[in-house]
Amino acid sequence: MREAFQAAGINVELLEESQPKSLMRPIRFYKLPGASLFLFRIVRKLTALIRERKIDVIEAHHTMAEIAAVLSARLTGAKAFLTRYHPPLKMRWPSQLLYGMSHGIVTDSHARARDIEEWRIRSTPTIGVIPHGLSAPESDCSVEELRRKLGLPIDPSIRVIGQVSGLIPIKGHLVLLDTAKRVLDQEPNTMFLLVGYNRGYDEYE
């Protein structure tokens, strides 16, 4: 997102740390030294930046960013808010502790808020709901032109049902594919389109 933020005139500070690929997979005991060193460097740089810029609020999304945000907030007196769209699937107990140390949790729907509420042990902090406020994109092309560019059937009687998400099991592609078979039995003029990229689940793809 860096280039998009910069193009929008938003200042981007780089911590110059790339998460090792080994940490993309479930953490094993033999990976803990490397993960700890990586996290230490991130927290040290983030803490210095918070103090230098006198930052009051940190928002973080994804596990490593959440850990760094909460630890840095505790060291500097800033407030850390975590954005989550589902309860953590891994690192259950560390995540419980992390959530309890944050100042608030933000999600995008009341359904997800209930899921997180049922998952967590402590009743604090507060869970806030901020729905995505994206408007439907507009285009100068006609529907027919768009279908042709995307390689979709031009026939308007063919209904296209799409899913846009990363190719990971929790997104429910298999549920959609199972449903697609039933729909096509009754509505053959239907096309299903899956758009996404591999996020490390080769067999799933």
Strand order of the largest sheet: 1-2-3-4
Supply the number of helical segments: 7
Q: Provide the residue-averaged pLDDT.
A: 87
Percent of residues in helices comes to 40-55%
Strand content: 5-15%
Number of strands: 6
Distance between the termini: 24 Å
Task: State the secondary-structure class.
Answer: alpha/beta
Largest sheet: 4 strands, parallel
Molecular shape: globular
Radius of gyration: 21 Å
Regions with pLDDT < 50 over 5+ consecutive residues? none
H/E element sequence: HHEHEHEHEHEHE
General description of the model:
The protein has 205 residues and is an alpha/beta fold. It is 40% helix and 14% strand. The protein is built from seven helices and six strands, in the order H-H-E-H-E-H-E-H-E-H-E-H-E. It has helices spanning 2-7, 32-53, 63-76, 92-101, 110-119, 143-149, 173-186; strands at 57-60, 79-83, 104-107, 127-129, 159-164, 190-195. Strands 1-2-3-4 form a four-stranded parallel beta sheet. Helix 2 packs across helix 3 (63-76). The longest helix is centred in the N-terminal third of the chain and has 22 residues, at 32-53. The relative contact order is 0.08. The model has no long low-confidence stretch (mean pLDDT 87).
Summarize the helices and strands and which ones pair or pack.
Layout: H1 2-7, H2 32-53, E1 57-60, H3 63-76, E2 79-83, H4 92-101, E3 104-107, H5 110-119, E4 127-129, H6 143-149, E5 159-164, H7 173-186, E6 190-195
Parallel strand pairs: 1-2, 2-3, 3-4, 5-6
